[in-house]
Amino acid sequence: PPDIEQLGRASWTLLHSITAAYPSSPSLAKQTETRNFLSLLSKLYPCHTCASDFQTWLKEDQNAPRVSSREEFGRWMCEAHNAVNVKLGKERFDCDRWEERWRTGWRE
Ligand code: FAD
């Protein structure tokens, strides 16, 4: 399998890019799909200790996915990423800047 760091960088790029492209006012169906996606991701992520810890984190009430708008979902993903940063002894990212990093600075 690809190494855990390379897999992680690629995965965070995908995940933050999904939040950047998320609607400001998603339909209820889209919100449900998004929750299902995150739940499946936590089961299928191809690093088993990563997946297992992410599942545990997701199950805590205060970490339930917030998917009712792009702004909320982007911040939620930033917090999820920070939880992994803290676990690995990396710096926390300032979540006031998630959009600058992943949306406004990003052009096709
Ligand atoms: P990354 O953490 O990959 O970040 C990439 C870029 O995102 C950074 O350069 C920065 O510009 C930006 N960024 C950083 N933090 C944030 C944030 N909070 N919000 C928005 N943008 C941010 N690795 C393990 O060794 N053990 C694990 O248990 C583990 N679990 C993981 C679980 C998941 C769900 C994922 C997706 C990855 C996991 N990883 C794990 C991988 C780990 O998070 C990193 O991707 C990897 O260590 C490479 O780190 P990096 O320093 O290159 O930057």
Automatic annotation (TrEMBL):
<dbReference type="GO" id="GO:0005758">
    <property type="term" value="C:mitochondrial intermembrane space"/>
</dbReference>
<keyword id="KW-0285">Flavoprotein</keyword>
<protein>
    <recommendedName>
        <fullName>Sulfhydryl oxidase</fullName>
        <ecNumber>1.8.3.2</ecNumber>
    </recommendedName>
</protein>
<keyword id="KW-0274">FAD</keyword>
<keyword id="KW-1015">Disulfide bond</keyword>
<feature type="domain" description="ERV/ALR sulfhydryl oxidase">
    <location>
        <begin position="1"/>
        <end position="102"/>
    </location>
</feature>
<keyword id="KW-0560">Oxidoreductase</keyword>
<dbReference type="GO" id="GO:0050660">
    <property type="term" value="F:flavin adenine dinucleotide binding"/>
</dbReference>
<dbReference type="GO" id="GO:0016971">
    <property type="term" value="F:flavin-dependent sulfhydryl oxidase activity"/>
</dbReference>
<keyword id="KW-0496">Mitochondrion</keyword>
